[in-house]
Amino acid sequence: MMLSVSAWLHHQIEEYHFSLRDISVDFYMAQAKLDRADCSIHQLRQFNDACQDMAELCQLNGDDQSYLHTLGKLHHRLVQEIGNPGRDRLFRLQAWQLARLSLTRLCHQLALTGEWHKATELQSDFVRHAGGTF
Questions:
Q1: Following DSSP, what letter does each residue of 60-88 receive, concatenated?
Q2: pTM for the complete prediction?
Q3: How far apart (Å, rounded) are the C-alpha atoms in residues 81 and 7?
Q4: Which residues, including other chains, have CB under 8 Å from residue 24's CB and lie 6 or more apart?
Q5: pLDDT tens for each residue of 23-66
Q6: Angle, vertex CA 125, rays to CA 120 and CA 128, nearest 5
Q7: CB within 8 A of 103, min separation 6: which ones?
Q8: Average pLDDT, the chain
Q9: Residue 56, class by beta-carbon neighbours within 10 Å (0-12 exposed, 13-18 middle, 19+ buried)?
Q10: CB atoms within 10 A of CB 68
Q11: What is the mean pLDDT of residues 69-80?
């Protein structure tokens, strides 16, 4: 039995939503670990990986708004961790390195859509918050 294009598209959208829901669980679990004071660098990387996986899923499915939103949440949290005095220096350095990568991806996507002002604003904000930390 052949599906119509409409039925096929509806099925693909449903599959995307199910996948997004599943990966959201991983994201929230990783975020909960990051919220704890005794969070390790490994757990920081798990949070980063969960966000990157979610962003990639969104990008592969053409969901640019969710892609930007996910990368934005990741980047914001990493910048927050850079300035967190409760974290040790190595943890904050790892957050800084990961934040640079998320900033690169964010700015690339913003440049593709012609939102140069937002990209410049994000870069300035990163330098302001993370530039003098170390």
A1: HTT-HHHHHHHHHHHHHHHHHHHT-TTS-
A2: 0.89
A3: 45
A4: 54
A5: 999 999 999 999 999 999 999 999 999 999 999 999 999 999 99
A6: 125
A7: 75, 122, 123, 126
A8: 93
A9: middle
A10: 20
A11: 96
